[in-house]
Every structure is written in structure tokens, then in C-alpha cells.
Prior knowledge:
This is DJ-1/PfpI domain-containing protein. This protein has six helices and five strands; from the N terminus they run αααβαβαβββα.
Amino acid sequence: PGGFGAAKNLSSFAFEGADCSVNPDVEKAIREMVSLGKPVGALCISPVILAKILGDVELTIGQDTGTAEAIEKMGATHTMTSHGEVVVDKKYKVVTTPCYMLDATIDQIGDGASNVIDAVLELT
Length: 124
């Protein structure tokens, strides 16, 4: 998933930051994917959900320092990235990219999304 809905509908991150909660069905799905060793791709703001659920996961939301600080407060490691770059956490098989967390064009969003797909396929 990706987009602002992840921060306000799938979780309460938009309102509560690092103290957020995650929709129980979303949390269950992510935990099941991880326990089965299946890769998970997350775009834009949605990596905050993975930070909340998994804790010590490595991920990116780009270069927003406030969000990066919240991610680290949840126990995760944030890596600063730019357009199209992905961060792969091999322990959890999680792949993330910032998309619209950066001032991006639709082509840059497409590149990031494609790179996440490629990295997820490499983890299968």
C-alpha cells in the first residue's frame, strides 16, 4: 500500500505520530506475510505502518526528518533516500520507497514503484 490513506485510515499515524495504532486487520495481514516469509512492498507514507508493527525493520520514507524521527521512535531504522531509491530489509523481506513523500513527478513515482516491484520479486 501507499498514500495518505495509510496514515489516516489504515493507521492513526496522521493524528498520533509514533504513538499511533494500526487497523487490526492490516496488522494481522502484515504479521502473517512476515511469518510466512513473504515479501512486503510499501510506498510513500505506508512504511510507518511497518515500523509500528515490526519495530526493528529498516525502511525509508525519503527525507522528511519529522517522519523519520517518528519511525525511529517506533524502533525502526530510517534511511534517507531520493527518487526511485528503495531500501530492502532482508530480515523481514520488506521493500520501501518514498514516492510522494518527496516532491516527485509521476515518472519518478513510477520509477520508485517499479523498483519496489523488482526488489520484491527478487525476494521471492
